[in-house]
Amino acid sequence: MNSETKLRKAEIDDRDIIWGMIRQSIERRKQDGSTQWQNGYPNIGTVESDIAKGFGYVLTVDGEIAVYAALILNDEPAYSQIEGAWLSDGEFVVVHRVAVEGKFAGQGMVKKLFDHIEDFTRSHGIQSIKVDTNYDNIAMLKILESKGYSYCGEVLLADGMRKAYEKIII
């Protein structure tokens, strides 16, 4: 039987589940030797802020939360200064803080998440998706490549330089 995946806004009741997923992701990055997310960010306050601002989204599988992401429209100050060049200067969705629930890890859930984000972007008439990741987050780099994102250059975020990617949706 095929599982049903849905993207929905996160609610405050989801906070502890999401925070648990982010903690798992922080630990996985550490195990992988990555420097990303190793300095106290993101934290539970980040999750609460995402939910309060309407940025928090969850991908559910048959109603169970599998992946978390913050989707932010047109607003990432760090992206105004890029060493390189974006593909477009229209409206965009920024994808931040992607975290997978451990039991769903390795099942292609982040690829499914990006499919849903592309549908979301298209349905809102938004031109592109922009995303950044650490140079040593190999899993995410592979996913972005497989989903047809273009490497645009580097951006400076609070905890260091990030590889920046964009995909034109409409």
UniProtKB/TrEMBL annotation:
SUPFAM superfamilies: Acyl-CoA N-acyltransferases (Nat) (SSF55729). Gene3D superfamilies: 3.40.630.30. Keywords: Acyltransferase, Transferase. Its EC number is 2.3.-.-. One of its GO terms (molecular function) is acyltransferase activity, transferring groups other than amino-acyl groups. It comes from the Bacteria. Residues 5-166 form the N-acetyltransferase domain. It is an enzyme of class 2 (transferase). CDD domains: NAT_SF (cd04301). This is GCN5 family acetyltransferase.
